[in-house]
Amino acid sequence: MRILLVITNVSGFHEIPYSFGLSSIAASALLEGHEVEVVGIQAESDYQTMLATIDSFDPSVIGFSAVTSQYQASCDAAKLIRDNGGKQIIVCGGTHITMVPNDLIASPQFDVGFVGESEVSFIEFLRMIETNRDYREVSNLAYVEDGRLIQNSLTPLVTDLDVLPHPIFGDLFESYIRGNGYAPFLFSRGCPYKCTN
Fold first, then answer.
1. What are phi and psi of 40, to 5 degrees?
2. Is a pLDDT exceeding 80 seen at residue 19?
3. What's the CA gap between 6 and 152, in Å, rounded?
4. Which pLDDT tens digit goes with each residue over 115-153?
5. Chain-centre distance of CA 195, in angstroms?
6. How far apart are CA 155 and CA 100, in angstroms?
7. Poorest-confidence range of 12-16, 75-79, 84-88, 131-135?
8. Closest CA to 19 of 41, 43, 47
9. pTM higher than 0.70, yes or no?
């Protein structure tokens, strides 16, 4: 299956030259034998690059990961895909959906949102799609049904990180990193701060 991952950093408060979450998702998907491409949106002019990539790559699933300052940019990009006839399954994960999953109610361009750690859930989600089963049954998913948010149970946090592939730091992200001129690295998993709801 072909999967397009989109990084948005349009007029953001912070530089986001690399997505730790999407790099882990990409590594997990590649390990399962899927094809993955990454596109970055740093200005409105990049929306056309995204649409051109969709036309040439023809993905079945398009995934966004958004911090709060980039959630609207992700919504705008996903709506543009829909407005241009995109029939792909479009998903959004990241810290914003994890903290505020109710925002999916006002974001019909997203089919589902991923809450919390989602490498394991995303792979199960792809398997459900491939076997024509209802992917909305997968853990860590949130979606809207009849105007109401449905949020599935969360899987336990991964404690043995050796079961996960190493995040991808080059290859797929190389052109995006080169465009920014640098890339940050965290030598731990997840946010180093202690934010709570």
1. -110, 140
2. no
3. 24
4. 999 999 999 999 999 999 999 999 999 999 999 999 999
5. 21
6. 18
7. 12-16
8. 41
9. yes
CB-count burial class (<10 Å; 0-12, 13-18, 19+) for 194? exposed
DSSP state of 33: T
Burial class (CB in 10 A: 0-12, 13-18, 19+), 127: middle
Question: Dihedral, CA atoms, 135, 140, 142, 143, nearest 10 degrees?
Answer: 0
Instruction: Give the helix, strand, coil percentages of the chain, each rounded to 5.
Output: 40, 20, 40
Exposed, middle or buried by CB within 10 Å (0-12, 13-18, 19+), for 80? middle
Give the β-pairing of 61-65 and 89-93. parallel
The pLDDT mean for the chain works out to 87
Check: CB of residue 126 under 8 Å from CB of residue 34: yes
DSSP per-residue string spanning 132-176: T--GGGSTTEEEEETTEEEEPPPPPPP--GGGSPPPP-SGGGHHH
Average pLDDT of the residues in 18-42: 89
Can you say whether residue 58 is alpha, beta or left, with left for phi > 0 and alpha for psi between -120 and 50 degrees? left
Q: Which residue has the higher pLDDT, 12 or 57?
A: 57
pLDDT tens for residues 177-187?
666 666 666 66
What is the spatial distance between Cα 72 and Cα 159, in angstroms, rounded to a whole number? 32
